[in-house]
Amino acid sequence: MDFKQIIHSIRNKEFKPIYILHGDEPYFIDKISNTIEEYVLEEHERDFNQTIIYGRDADLVNLISELKGYPMMSERRLVILREAQDFKQIELLESYAETPMNSTIFVICCKYKTLDSRKKLIKETTKSGIVYKSDKVKEYQLPDWIVSYLKEKGFTINSKATMLLAENVGNDLSRLVNEIEKLSIILPKGSLITDQHIEENIGISKDYNVFELTNAISKLDISKANKIVNYFEHNPKATDLTVVVSNLFKFFTQIMRIHFYPNKSRDFVANALKVHPFVAGELSQASGKFPPKKIAANIEILYEFDLRSKGVNSNNVEQAELLKELIFRLLN
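RE: above sequence
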């Protein structure tokens, strides 16, 4: 059962006696757990029938006692074990998982850790409950995820705004959702979210950011690249040299790969590089402006500046000056 199906079943009050939520992405774990907390009990039932325990404070005997307790003036009880990755005796819950109480909903939230699927706890839970592995959204999947999330909330978003969010916020979904929530409060439902909205409400400049710097370099637009670098110099919080180097390294390795693809169509490139088709089209155009020898030279330059950004052979040169030198050498 995937994330959306689990949320749908909970909202329909189709509950399972055990939920194990584990994995590297905390957003999905929190969302499922919070939805269970919202729908299992009415507000007046929670005082006597809801227990939240944290893994570092959990005691196996007391936890089992809570799980086997009977509800008071309610159909069911809810027990949530949060931060379960800190509970050292978690595997000993396997005996409870074999014969769980039908009147208790037990939610195990294990963040930033994947439990071993071969263990008996997982196998027994799978029989009567739900085991959900919460994986990070891959970078190439982020634009589609943003579009899908906004569609559910009743909004659309243009390509540039999508890429600004994906490139500048990254796959920290909790932060990404918080930024999107700001927009959904400010803008009327049904709005098309543009890069202008991103700049005005989230604080990411639509014209002066790492995405636009990479775009300027991809088009050999020296004037625009220098304007962005000057903006970074006067707004040091806007980015960091290590972020610029990382993004440019990714860009040049991608267009190097395109040079050696037998098929250079946008769909083939998008699938091969695991990027959005819009990005694939931009990269394909950029590959025509940089021959493989220049790309190889630029990658070597980026290795050098990666070290210099970390203080190796930098001679205490300011980051802004390093960035200017980097852009000059990449484009000349």
